[in-house]
Amino acid sequence: MKIPFTKMHGLGNSYIYVDLFAFHLEEQQLAPLAMEVSDVNTGIGSDGLILIQPSRVADVGMRIFNKDGSEGKNCGNGLRCVAKYAYEKGIVENRSFTIETKAGNVTAHVHGDSDTITEVTVDMGNPILNRNAIPMQGSNDEQVVAESFEVSHHPLELTAVSMGNPHAIFFVEDIKDAPLLELGPVITNDQRFPEGVNVEFVEIVSEHEIHFRVWERGSGVTQACGTGACAAVVASILNGYAKRNQFVCVHLSGGDLMINWANDGHVWMKGKAETAAIGEFIWS
Ligand SMILES: N[C@H](CCC[C@H](N)C(=O)O)C(=O)O
């Protein structure tokens, strides 16, 4: 089976994109395909698979599958690449349009000349802050801000934020010392998060600037996580390290994202979207 694909990335967080406006895949093929294409040795190499597809409720639809075949409900870097693709291929004609995700609809705005979109701004909507909606175990429905959270004998302080997908944020003095490889794989599967969780460590530089590293649910360490960057800025503001209604520069391994938790409650994300390769995946 030959599957046409486009490999795109947001700050090095790459996915293999399949355009279902032009190609058909069966539901039961999606998870195994995500694992196969992601394999750097026997596949193409990526953090997962993203489908660009028709939508009844938005101008275009997106589904995202992590490297392990699990389906995520949202993907910030993926949204920017889907927006780039949809505009460049003429799936949409306006520079602003809606994208359906499993977490709801978002609005994207593409920047750049008509045949090469370089940057995209996405209105990611409201963050979800109540414990039960993250989801996280616990009796009350309060926010989870600087809550003590012990794991592997490390006394940590957790702030939990969902952007339609769950994020556990921990602030550290120096991002270089963040215990990402030791604690990322442990926390992502911690039973206190019934659906698992994306794990982020953040160093505050100023109210306008943070450093960020991530262990993603279903993909492990990635170069960048768009929803994670949004969650990290929301968490920084909830902890008093940054302010609403102004852009915060998030330094991720693969580059910078500009994030603003506006006074209307919506989180705005602006950053690059790039095409790396176009081809056919031979799936036997
Ligand atoms: N691993 C995430 C999905 C991808 C999110 C990330 N790549 C982004 O850019 O937001 C999850 O299972 O919730």
From TrEMBL:
InterPro entries: DAP_epimerase_AS, DAP_epimerase_DapF. Keywords: Amino-acid biosynthesis, Cytoplasm, Isomerase, Lysine biosynthesis. SUPFAM superfamilies: Diaminopimelate epimerase-like (SSF54506). Pfam families: DAP_epimerase. It is found in: Cytoplasm. One of its GO terms (molecular function) is diaminopimelate epimerase activity. Catalyzes the stereoinversion of LL-2,6-diaminopimelate (L,L-DAP) to meso-diaminopimelate (meso-DAP), a precursor of L-lysine and an essential component of the bacterial peptidoglycan. This is Diaminopimelate epimerase. Homodimer. It comes from Aquibacillus albus. It is an enzyme of class 5 (isomerase). The active site is at C75, C75 (proton donor), C225 (proton acceptor). Pathway: Amino-acid biosynthesis; L-lysine biosynthesis via DAP pathway; DL-2,6-diaminopimelate from LL-2,6-diaminopimelate: step 1/1. Its main location: cytoplasm. The lineage of its organism: Bacteria, Bacillati, Bacillota, Bacilli, Bacillales. The keyword Lyase does not apply. Its EC number is 5.1.1.7. Belongs to the diaminopimelate epimerase family. Substrate binds at N13, N66, G76, N77, N165, N198, E216, R217, G226, T227. It catalyses: (2S,6S)-2,6-diaminopimelate = meso-2,6-diaminopimelate. The keyword Nucleotide-binding does not apply. The record marks H167, E216 as: Could be important to modulate the pK values of the two catalytic cysteine residues.
